[in-house]
Amino acid sequence: MATYRTLEVERHGRVGWLIFNRPAAGNAMNATMMAELEDAWLELDADPAVRVIVNTGNGPAFQSGVDVVQLARDKDAMRKFSRQTRDAQLRFTSWHLNIWKPVIAAVNGVCAGGGLHFVADADIVIAAAGVTFVDPHVSVGQVVAYEGITLARTSPMEAVMRMALVGRHERLTAERARQLGIVSEVIDPPDRLRAHAQELAEKIAKNSPAAMRATKQALWGALEAGLTDSCRNGAQILAGMWGHPDQEEGPRAFAEKREPEWAPLTGPTAVATTGP
């Protein structure tokens, strides 16, 4: 396993944890974290023992986006990231990297600016009571693009537009985010967040890894195309599972009233036309 300077990567049973670990900087992404995020996601994705990945942060912040201090003082360090941004070749979230294992974002503190990438690109988002979401891009003369575009595909457009245009002058509460469908659950008391995320991940990990991968590919693929094309793509993915041993093991285990023994993931990690 790799050693990281800005992240913590843990495994608890069948659940992998990717934890932002720059609490003194609000877990902001500097050049080191940008590079390490790609490695950490791919490490957990390649581990056959990990079926679900939880993403959270250490300290009072979940994620506060690009490290503007480094950006101001050392532009050369962020030049690679700038090119990736311009060319739509970002490589630091699960969606950027075509991670087809289920991903839970467990938002432990404030989520600001580029931190919204990790909310927009997760499969499931839960948040601790009291956390807030804010997008200050326009308040510092920057454009809202990637994060807002993805959120607008999965959340009410007006709410995303309001957050983008009001900038740092208003924050979205966790409860309001739940009402809007950005967050599926608010955890109270907040210190139960990690335990609850682990419990949720363990429930998900009981399911067929191959079926979950194909399901995730089909549903994310639906965001890339119109209804008819999405259904055709989904049909190909669905039929691609026919003959897989999990399709026999699932009904057999149900009939025998026991937990299924799923086959490990094999073959290509993606078959759908999703991702940047």
Automatic annotation (TrEMBL):
What CDD domains does the database record attribute to this sequence?
A: crotonase-like
Q: What is this protein called?
A: Unannotated protein
UniProt-annotated stretches for the region Disordered:
244-276
Protein family membership? Belongs to the enoyl-CoA hydratase/isomerase family.
Q: Name one Pfam family in it.
A: ECH_1
Point to the regions of Basic and acidic residues compositional bias.
Answer: 245-261
SUPFAM superfamilies listed in its UniProt record: ClpP/crotonase
